[in-house]
Amino acid sequence: MGESFVIDPQSIENLRALNPGDDDAFLREIAGIFLEDTPQRIAELDQSLLEGDVSRFTRAAHSIKGSSSNLGALVLQAAAEKLEQRARSQGLGDVGLLLVDVKLEFDRAHAALTALVGK
Q1: Which of 50, 13, 42, 15 is nearest to 30 (CA)?
Q2: How far is CA 36 from the centre of its chain?
Q3: Cα separation of 13 and 35, whole Å?
Q4: Rg for the chain, CA atoms, rounded
Q5: Rounded to the nearest 10 degrees, what angle do helices 9-18 and 25-51 cross at?
Q6: Alpha-carbon distance values, 110 to 52, 78, 98, 99 (Å)
Q7: pTM score, two decimals?
């Protein structure tokens, strides 16, 4: 996926269609929630990895996967899904690189959303 597709344009249009004529207020609200919540979920990933809490770790990865999907951050969604699946199937012993991918993709999604909605 190219740089222009860090955030899927069709997903953005679908969100805009939910509240047409609001000058993107709904989109900004949803993006704001995502941009506020996702760093908390990433911190939860870090903390649960330190504590060896597989259940909490997979819940946080699942949450990131879902919220990324809603906003069209499809590369982040895929990275979070890989992380969730690895933790579920193999535990937390080998998730380091996948966690780095999630963090990098969130940074890219954050920049793209901020540029899109002006947050």
Answers
A1: 15
A2: 11
A3: 19
A4: 15
A5: 120
A6: 28, 16, 18, 16
A7: 0.92
Q: What is the pLDDT of residues 32-87, one digit of tens each?
A: 999 999 999 999 999 999 999 999 999 999 999 999 999 999 999 999 999 999 99
d(CA 99, CA 105): 10
What lies within 8 Å, CB to CB, of 73 at 6+ separation is: 6, 7, 8, 34, 105, 106, 109, 112, 113
Closest CA to 58 of 15, 87, 90: 87
Residue 64's CB: how many other CB atoms inside 10 A? 28
Amino acid at 69: S
Domain 3-117: what homologous superfamily?
HPT domain (1.20.120.160)
